[in-house]
Amino acid sequence: MAELTSLLAPVFSRCDLRSNAMAYMRALLMPGVSGNCWALAQAVGYDRPYRFQHLLSGAMWDEDAVRDQVRAFVVRPVGSRPGSRNARAVQDSRLGSDR
Hints:
Layout: H1 2-8, H2 15-29, H3 37-43, H4 50-57, H5 63-79, H6 84-98
């Protein structure tokens, strides 16, 4: 998670937004936690969901940049495993069929 945090840090101009985004991602990755802001906030120790609600509906940040960084973070380990060429080929064929 520390590596992902460092990759995403430049996307968030304020440290409070960065902190809330990392807490939100930690909560999303927790097993057995539902996807609403109340449950996610409680899972990471917040009393109320306002930080997550602000992050998702009012804060200014580049969603596309976050998506691209998370995708690169997830795909990189997959690409280094044996047989990963097949996964890349499937991904490329799906992209090609959508165009």
